[in-house]
């Protein structure tokens, strides 16, 4: 676990350095009140960059959902993955990116809701220069949870041209 | 619909008047950044007081949940009701009250998560002197939705003594 964090550190340093040119964004983020505390730092290989998770509701045999507030620091993102029962994302802070396999990367903003259909590979995360927090609701967890795939490469992790 | 709003207006005026003694609370609420816009004013008989709803995700035949951000102004609350498939509440702002039939009223605060089991009658809302916003997630909507019962009376709508 510690080895993994060490491996991520150079990436985080580069991202912080890349971010300093965008003073306005950094100030806006600093003034935000978090909806939920950002929780624990994620230290597994299913993510690139610095990610925090606050588990709000574990799945159970009654409601069949799990809920977590996930914070991606600039540049951070999930690996490609899919959910056996689907997922819904509620963006509560900042600006992020979302992509389904075979489709264009899209920008997702504070206030937006994304429905990820079951068994469709996708990834989500921050933009390169702004953090993003979403509430992630795993649905139909009685069918199954997330299935993790390969990391999102630097080539795949691209801000859509039209929003630059 | 218009008739109903008119009926609620005197209640709202009384609640605003009751609230002016608590300047600190009013100021704190005013400075909060809403996570989601508060949406449309609710104008049906399933609520007492002034309530706003922002529908974030309608139910569908894939995810089996519906999601709304609901804002209760001070004194406002749902009627008693239950959900055929259960519900989960994420308190995103302020302080509220929650009660299940036969149990004590409990205070629910910003950051807390409440799981309402299926078929258990309950109500939720603001405290008498502070607004509350929660994200309400209806679960297992393929089983059924909310079943509405009688209003929460002034006698039932009580701030628990131990938190006064």
From TrEMBL, chains A, B:
The cross-references to InterPro entries, in alphabetical order and at most eight, read: Cupin_2, HNL-like_cupin, RmlC-like_jellyroll, RmlC_Cupin_sf
Q: Which domain of life is it from?
A: Bacteria
Give the record's keywords alphabetically: Dioxygenase, Oxidoreductase
Which residues does the UniProt record annotate as the domain Cupin type-2? 70-136
Keyword hit for Oxidoreductase: yes
Q: Which GO terms describe its molecular function?
A: dioxygenase activity
Does the keyword section mention ATP-binding?
no
Q: Give a Pfam family name.
A: Cupin_2
Q: What is this protein called?
A: Quercetin dioxygenase-like cupin family protein
Q: What is the scientific name of the source organism? A: Sphingobacterium paludis
């Amino acid at each position: 676990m510690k080895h993994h964090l060490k491996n991520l550190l150079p990436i985080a340093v580069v991202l912080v350095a890349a971010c300093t040119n965008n003073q306005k964004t950094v100030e806006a983020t600093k003034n935000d009140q978090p909806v939920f505390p950002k929780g624990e730092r994620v230290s597994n290989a299913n993510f690139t960059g610095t990610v925090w998770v606050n588990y709000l509701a574990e799945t159970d045999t009654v409601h069949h959902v799990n809920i977590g507030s996930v914070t991606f620091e600039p540049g951070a993102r999930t690996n490609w993955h899919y959910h056996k029962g689907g997922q819904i994302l509620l963006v509560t802070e900042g600006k992020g990116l979302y992509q389904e396999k075979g489709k264009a990367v899209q920008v997702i903003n504070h206030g937006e809701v994304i429905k990820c259909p079951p068994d469709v590979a996708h990834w989500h995360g921050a933009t390169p220069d702004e953090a993003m927090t979403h509430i992630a609701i795993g649905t139909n967890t009685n069918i199954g949870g997330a299935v993790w795939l390969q990391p999102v490469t630097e080539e795949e992790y691209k801000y859509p041209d039209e929003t630059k």
